[in-house]
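cron nightly-structures :: item 1 of 1
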Amino acid sequence: MKDQHVNPEESVQIFEDLGCKRALAVHWGTFQLTDEPLDQPPRDLAIALRARHLSAEQFQVRPIGSTMTIAPRKGR
């Protein structure tokens, strides 16, 4: 699926290249499309974040089915 997706390490690189403050990992654990376990991408993301000294708060992985409230930007 390389032509349509990026892996967790590439996601962290994109996060840094764009100068993001926060990111949300999506589109994981939905379908078994590879030989890896469904929960492997979040584990690989955690490794990539640690390697770049980024926190899980900066690039979040939410449990499947969870909700999250995002506060509006100030001044908008």
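cron nightly-structures :: done
The longest helix spans residues 40-51.
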